[in-house]
Amino acid sequence: MNFVRALPVLLSAVLLAAHFFRAGRPGLTSVCLVFPAILLIRHRWPARLVQIALVLGSLEWVRTLVVLASHRHAMGDPWTRMAIILGAVAVLTAASALVFRMKGLRERYEL
């Protein structure tokens, strides 16, 4: 059941990996694909590390949103739909850090 609870974390990691892959950052792509694997360790620090990574990932989505929206706006291209989608992905990534507040995951990682 804890696997199901951790699915938002996995989805966020895969989305971040795809983002960095498209940007030509293979190192960050690998990190994003590997960091959920540390959740196999049953201690407090892996959960906290993943939470920090998810918050940083959310900030990366917001940064990307601002950069792309400003470029599109300057070019006169439509940008609202892109901003809504990237904003939703940023919120999903940030909210994924909250899954560790669920009872099963709190017990597993002794939080």
Written description of the protein model:
The chain is an all-alpha fold and 111 residues long. It has one domain. Helix content is 76%, strand content 0%. It contains 6 helices and no strands. It has helices at 2-5, 7-22, 26-34, 44-75, 80-96, 103-108. Helix 2 packs across helix 4 and helix 2 crosses helix 5. The longest helix is centred in the middle third of the chain and has 32 residues, at 44-75. The radius of gyration is 15 Å and the shape is elongated. The two termini are 18 Å apart. The model has no long low-confidence stretch (mean pLDDT 92).
In helices, the fraction of residues equals: over 70%
Gyration radius, rounded: 15 Å
Low-confidence stretches: none
Number of domains: 1
Biggest sheet details: none
Mean pLDDT: 92
Number of H/I helices: 6
Order of helices and strands: HHHHHH
> What is the terminal separation in angstroms?
18 Å
Q: Structural class of the secondary structure composition?
A: mainly alpha
This entry's quaternary arrangement is: single chain
Number of DSSP E strands: 0
Shape: elongated
Our estimate of the beta-strand percent is: under 5%
Write the layout of secondary structure elements.
Blueprint (H helix, E strand, L loop, with lengths): L1 H4 L1 H16 L3 H9 L9 H32 L4 H17 L6 H6 L3
Helix pairs in contact: 2-3, 2-4, 2-5, 4-5
Short description:
This protein has 111 residues and is mainly α.
